[in-house]
Specification:
The protein contains 4 helices and 7 strands. Residues about 1-15 have low confidence and may be disordered. Strands 1, 2, 3, 4, 5, 6 and 7 form a 7-stranded antiparallel sheet that branches. It is about 35% helix and about 25% strand. The chain is elongated. The protein has one domain (about 45-175): Chitinase A, domain 3, CATH 3.10.50.40. It has about 180 residues and is of the alpha+beta class. Strand 1 and strand 2 (about 75-80) form a beta hairpin.
Length: about 180
Amino acid sequence: MLSGRFRFLWVVIFFIACSSNENTKQTPVPDSKNLKEQMVRVNKVQTYNEDSQIDDFLKRYQYPVNTTATGLRYYIYKKTEGEQPGAHSIVKINYNVKLLDGTVCYSSDSLGALEFQIGKTDLPVGLQEGMQLMKTGEQAIFISPSKLGYGLTGDGAEIPPNAVLFYDVKLLRVIKK
């Protein structure tokens, strides 16, 4: 009896899966050229929205930032004559990572100083790029668009998707150049 019911259930599922409903319109799958064009448009809108958000933030707080070719905004507010890290240096930093609304995501105050090798970590490229602009003992802020941060997915914990990040960083040491 059970095997008959089971067989009947599979026949029903098979029939439903294989039958077509003529009243249902199927969404056409875009070809790769159209898909690429749509992605470019979405990316341009996202970049424009983030740039506007960053510009509003900078007007409000009046940080005299410079901008790199990648779009990272930075301001070194305490300068020194220390050692400057290179593309594969190991550095140790104190840091605060916030969203532009002031929400603290991560901080060395609670997590301790962070040590990492530039170019050999999964930390955001915006932070890694910014570290190469500093010298030991300097303090800086970085404002990183999402494309230089955690992008479309966020980090799965504290940082949401498409988040612009605000870093306040002090380069404590260049451990290995």
